[in-house]
Amino acid sequence: MVKSGTNANSNFGTSPNLFAKNDAADPAARNVSFIKFNTGAINTDAVQQAILQVNGQNAGSASQVIGHVYAIDSNNWNEPTITWNNAPDLKDSLSAAVSSISDNFIDDIGNTAHFVGNLTGIASSRTLSIDVTDYVHDHPGQEITFLIAREVRFDGENVDDAITSLQMASKERGTSPGPQLLLTLGAAALPGDYDHNGVVDMADYDIWRQNVGTSNAVADGNRDGVVDAADYVLWRSNQGTSLPGIASGSSLSGAAVPEPSTWLLTISLAIAGLAVSSARQDRLCGLHRWQPVQPPDLPCGSFPLQ
Q1: Which residues, at least 6 apart from 217, have a Cβ–Cβ distance to it below 8 Å?
Q2: DSSP string, 231-245
Q3: I want to staple 249 with a disulfide (CB 3.0 to 4.6 A). Which of 8, 21, 199, 276 is the partner?
Q4: 100/31 Cα distance (integer angstroms)
């Protein structure tokens, strides 16, 4: 959560609340909230559905409040240091009233700030959700930022915080769930994970070895119709990675990484120069904790990113 006015250089990263609110008289009480998720090693092409979910309510006197949600291209911010003045896509907001579109403070809408939907809160706390599949599916980076604001999106919209103010639980609250990104993943979510248990390890190498030379899709990591050295390279370049929240499988540290047979090695050299080095990718850890919501050995599953 960040605030404008005299609070524009202050950080509120440890607050138990996230607010999207305006104040007709005091810019220092004007709040916007940023939420960031890290999808780690997940192949976003394999994301079948993505749902942004928060726990929130209207803290004003009206029956409901509408919070406007943007996906932000810039992820160059951190919870302990973000302020209104250094946050991405925010203009100064020092006017005494925000009552028209001309007073809006979300910057570069349609270019680096993408409107993705609304969250509607009522007087009592409840789960609020919107579908953000298109943005997550097409977003090339591992980190994904959402901005939630209470600015005017159409003339005549009343955003006075005495009437409407969206109050949401942050991950620090403890008594209510913090923000989550629920992902429904296809079988190709983690490259090289041929047994689809959320970990790229020796078990996946065994599956590749048993199917090399066949058209068995289970080990055809690059989906070219044949299990070959390219799929071995895909496994090796990702070995040791896992879906966040999934415990690492059989470690390869301290043991020799198995090499394909000579003829496969020759093929792979011809195909891709065999970018097989002794260095392994470090495990990509998310900024937030993941918990599987169904058994991780299924080929497809939904995982909440918190």
Answers
A1: 223
A2: HHHHHHHHTT-B-TT
A3: 199
A4: 17
Nearest to 53 by CA among 176, 172, 187: 176
pLDDT of residue 99: 78
The answer to whether 1 and 12 have CB atoms below 8 angstroms apart is yes
Of 239, 183, 178, which Cα lies nearest the Cα of 38?
183
Largest Cα–Cα separation, the chain: 75
Query: What digits encode the pLDDT tens for the residues 217-243?
Result: 899 988 899 999 999 999 998 888 888
Distance CA 278, CA 262 (A): 18
Distance in angstroms (rounded) separating the CA atoms of residues 216 and 233: 17
Backbone angles phi, psi at 72, to 5 degrees: -110, 130
Kindly state the tokens that stand for 119.
Answer: 């969250």
Per-residue pLDDT tens over the stretch 19-31: 999 887 889 989 9
Measured CA to CA, the distance from residue 212 to residue 36 in angstroms comes to 40
**In this predicted model, what pLDDT tens digit does every residue of 122-145 receive, in sequence order?**
999 999 999 999 999 888 778 999
For residue 110, what is the DSSP state?
T
